[in-house]
Design a protein that fits this description.
The complex is a heterodimer. Chain A is mainly alpha-helical. Chain A contains six helices and no strands. Chain A is globular. In chain B, 81% of the residues lie in helices and 0% in strands. Chain B is built from nine helices and no strands. The chains are: A mainly alpha, B mainly alpha. Chains A and B meet through α1, α3 and α4 of A and α2, α7 and α8 of B.
Chain lengths: 151, 260
Amino acid sequence: MSYFHSLIRPVAAVSAIALLVLAAGCSKPADTSTAGAAPNSATDPSGTATPAKKPSKLGDVSAFRSIALDVAASVDKGDLLAAKTRIKDLEIAWDSAEAGLKPRAADDWHVLDKAIDSALKALRADTPNQSNCKTLMSALLKTFDTLQATN
Amino acid sequence: MITLSATATSNWFNKVPEVTLSFWVIKIMSTTVGETGADFLAVNAGWGQGLTRGVMGTLLAIALFMQLRTRRYRPWTYWLTVVLVSVVGTQITDLLTDGLDVSLYVSTAVFAAALAAIFSIWYWVERTLSIHEIITRRREVFYWVVILCTFALGTAAGDLATEALGLGFAWGALSFGTLIAFTYAAWRVGGNAVLTFWIGYILTRPFGAALGDMLTQAKTYGGLGMGAMWTSALFLTVIVMLVVVAQISIGSRTDSQIAE
């Protein structure tokens, strides 16, 4: 009885480790398959925006870039309210993808994060300044392009 | 002072739960729920980091006040406090990293040193670090300060692993899971119970975060694509069920104690 009792916990520990190894084993092919799948999904939304550019070390960031393009278009038109509304979509999308993107290239992630953050702050200022927003948005788009070009 | 704590001892019951499997499940899951909740308020609801910090800090103060005032372990108060400590501990690290540009190497080292210092003071004052005899207010204050520190340290160390080693959530869950398994094994073969408990407590913070990320992150990033909302709903359901079970069993235990 006590023999079985003392056996339960080591068995539980071993099976927990086995489960973890399995989980990692299963998630590894998923990682490689996503690396293959990323360019495919990249061509759909941004085929017009970024033609035949290599993805950055961060992988496919075209979905974020295309929102940034929308924001920049609104800023150019002088519709800062629409820009402010649209950039929130970028903030939410960027924030929720952090755990997936950041480990791929933390330095690149921080560069983009800072650029998005400054654009956000400019658009959310009490009295947003159009030329300031314009500068920061084009800086953000340039950041996207540099990251894709350098790889 | 000595007589005061002596009388307090006789009136107090252990204020914290026994360490069981359900303890660790709730602890790991509450990390994810707390973090997604605070993130939702700050970003989706548009409160911003400043307001969210203020609100969470206030809620923690209220929960801690209730927890310190109860005379015995009450599961829902205890676990509400843990969730809020987890949120605030994470926010402290995030504020240092993102707001004040403190390097993660520095914050990890500082929190580790702070934790060692608090343990030293706790041991020096109480001559024990036992988590089975949290029976005076002073010990309970030590207990909660240490827990806050482990969450801040766990966040900083986990983020450092992501930044410096490029450790994604899949490898993160595996690495921290393995370290937890080693800690468990060390305890099984007779390692110091208090030490292994606190090491496990620190490690379950980044492990819980990686596990949460695995469920929430999109399939493109190798996650299961459940999204933050469904993951939190699932975890919250499990937490509530386990806490309700704990609450009921505590209730029947005290009834039988009174009957005796």
